[in-house]
Design a protein that fits this description.
By secondary structure, the protein is α+β, with helices and mostly antiparallel strands. The chain has helices spanning 21-28, 52-65, 91-103, 121-139, 143-154, 160-167, 171-181, 183-202, and strands at 2-8, 35-39, 44-49, 68-74, 111-115. A 5-stranded mixed sheet has the order 2-3-1-4-5.
Length: 206
């Protein structure tokens, strides 16, 4: 299982309108979670997913939804699952807590991966390196590039003409946004990230 712990990288609690949690929960609403994502305390959110592809999707949506430190814990969770994600426990939950604590101290791209089984430490570090690279590419995009990439990711089979009509811009604008966003390079790294995360999950104690 994959436990994702999100903590606002730059907490802003002075006004309700500064709260980034609702935007993150809305973004994670499009992700197939084993238990619905929830706020835990303050600007913090917890999510539980069962597939590596879903964990990557959740991470990408979080990077687009706000400034989040992200800890990903991989391994077993105690069964049966509780009614709410806030009540989960087990090795993966502990790994996620340690990962997000470390991510909060990371000045570059705050994404940390921890495997509950120490034998997978090297693989977790490899996965973290790939995810940080992907996260860096996402962070450098402007709003137009984000919109084009998000639309393309949600509908990979769409043509640029269809995406342009959907976004209300010209086809040339979509083409330029996709080219300059690094989307092709980023998406080429997705299968590697997924394989590394899956290797940890599939060979971890249940």
């Amino acid at each position: 299982m994959f436990v994702l712990s999100f903590s606002a990288a730059s907490p802003r609690r002075t006004r309700d309108t500064d709260d980034q949690v609702p935007a993150l929960l809305e973004a994670l609403g499009a992700v197939t979670c084993a238990l619905p994502a929830e706020r835990t305390a303050g600007p913090e959110v917890l999510a539980l997913v069962s597939r590596a592809e879903t964990a990557l999707d959740a991470l990408l949506r979080a990077r687009e939804a706000g400034d989040w430190a992200i800890g990903l814990g991989i391994g077993a969770v105690d069964r049966p699952l509780p009614e709410t994600v806030r009540a989960i426990s087990g090795p993966a939950a502990s790994a996620a807590a340690a990962a997000v604590a470390s991510a909060r101290t990371t000045s570059s791209v705050p994404i940390v991966v921890r495997a509950a089984d120490s034998r997978h430490r090297d693989t977790a570090e490899d996965a973290e390196a790939v995810l940080r690279l992907i996260g860096w590419m996402v962070r450098t995009r402007n709003r137009g590039q984000w919109r084009a990439v998000r639309a393309l990711r949600d509908d990979p089979g769409a043509t640029q003409a269809q995406l342009a009509q959907r976004l209300g811009v010209t086809q040339q604008t979509v083409s330029r946004a996709v080219t300059t966003s690094g989307w092709r390079e980023e998406s080429a790294a997705h299968p590697l990230a997924t394989r590394l995360l899956s290797m940890i999950d599939l060979t971890s104690p249940r």
